Amino acid sequence: FPSHDRPSQPQSNYNPQQQANDTAAAEAAARAAEEARIRSSISAEFDPVFQELDRRIGLLPGQQKQFEDQINTLAASQGQTVDTQQAKDTAALDTSKAGEVQQASGSLRILEEDVRNQLLAKSFYFGALGAGDSSAPGMASEAVTKGALKARSNVLATRDQALAVLDQKKADVAAMATEQKRQIDTWKSDKLFQTAQDFCHFCIVTGK
User: 3-state class of 69 per DSSP?
Assistant: First the structure.
């Protein structure tokens, strides 16, 4: 009888451990790819935002300088307004002082003219009487002179009092201007300090 050998069975290469390793590697690669895709998506979405923040942060020094310049300009403008008002008020008071001096000078001229007229009238009067008490003209002249001196003293006292009041008003104007400028300087210092603090705090928070 012819020999009929059974065909040989093929050798199997199946390795469970290798298959498990391959599966784990494939899953890890898939996870890595997905994570990369997600990171790329997030980066694509937020990169413009971060770039804009970086741009703005880069502008901060210039913006701080701009704010500081505005504060300095406003303070200088307010200080100039105070100076202008002080000069205006002082000029008005100086005009009033000049008016008081002029009025007193006019009063003194009128007083001198009155005294002269009175003395002349007394002279005519006693001359018309002829001989008489020789002391009468002198006494009359003395009385007129005393009256004139008293009137002159009153005029000068009124003038000096008015000038003293005006000088005090000028001092008050100067003191007010000084206080207003002090307040402006304080405001400017506070605002500049606060601006520096705000920008410094922002830079610390952002790490810029």
Answer: helix
Which residues are within 8 A (CB) of 128 and not within 5 positions of it... i.e. 6 or more apart?
none
d(CA 187, CA 179): 12
Phi, psi of 2 (to 5 degrees): -65, 150
127-140 residue pLDDT tens: 555 545 566 566 66
Both structure tokens of 69 = 């310049």
Q: Is-contact 93 166, C-beta < 8 A?
A: yes
d(CA 115, CA 150): 12
For the stretch 30-49, pLDDT in tens is 777 776 676 666 556 556 65
Helix (H, G, I), strand (E, B) or coil at 133: coil
The CA distance from 79 to 77, in Å, is 5
- Side-chain half-sphere CA neighbours of 168 within 13 A: 6
Can you tell me the distance from the alpha carbon of 129 to that of 123, in angstroms, rounded to the nearest whole number? 10
93 near 145, Cβ under 8 Å?
A: no
Backbone angles phi, psi at 158, to 5 degrees: -65, -45
Q: Which helix (H) or strand (E) holds 10?
A: none
**Residue 146 vs residues 90, 104, 156, 160: alpha-carbon distances, Å:** 38, 19, 15, 21
Q: Name the nearest CA neighbour of 118 among 135, 143, 136.
A: 143
